[in-house]
Amino acid sequence: MTPLKTRLRLAFVAICAAAAFATPAFAGSIEEFPTGWRLQNYNGAYVVVFFTGASDCTMGSIRMTGTADDVNRFWSTVLAAKLANRKLGVIYSGGGSSCVVDSFYIQS
């Protein structure tokens, strides 16, 4: 094999490896009315929402972690969506019992 072919193959392998590690583990998103969701707080460190439409997550559970302000903002947004009868959107990563909220929004 020529040195040029060897370098090209190594460059290709390096690019593929970098792309594999740089791509986020996107599992899915949901957009639904949160009326049947159960919020559960765990020692103020994080909140888990059960019974969402996230079918690839165990019991539809999605964990919200982050700063206390982030967790409080999520909790408030879920309650506001319930009270206003609005859909809530959640983008999450992971799967099984490791689904984590990446982003969330309330429909206007």
Task: Map the helices and strands.
Layout: H1 3-22, E1 26-32, E2 38-42, E3 46-50, E4 62-64, H2 68-84, E5 88-93, E6 100-106
Antiparallel strand pairs: 1-5, 2-3, 3-4, 5-6
Describe the structure.
This protein has 108 residues and is an alpha+beta fold. The chain has one domain (26-106): OB fold (Dihydrolipoamide Acetyltransferase, E2P). Helices cover 34% and strands 31% of the residues. It has two helices and six strands. The strands form two sheets. The protein has a three-stranded antiparallel β-sheet, with helices on one face. A three-stranded antiparallel β-sheet has the order 2-3-4. It is elongated and about 70 Å long. The N and C termini lie far apart (61 Å). 17% of the residues are buried. Residues 16-24 have low confidence and may be disordered.
Which labels suit this protein?
alpha+beta; 2 helices; OB fold (Dihydrolipoamide Acetyltransferase, E2P); three-stranded antiparallel β-sheet; 108 residues; 31% strand
CA-atom Rg in angstroms: 19 Å
The outline comes out as elongated
Kindly estimate the percentage of residues that lie in beta strands according to DSSP.
25-35%
Structural class: alpha+beta
What is the count of distinct domains?
Answer: 1
- Main beta-sheet annotation: 3 strands, antiparallel
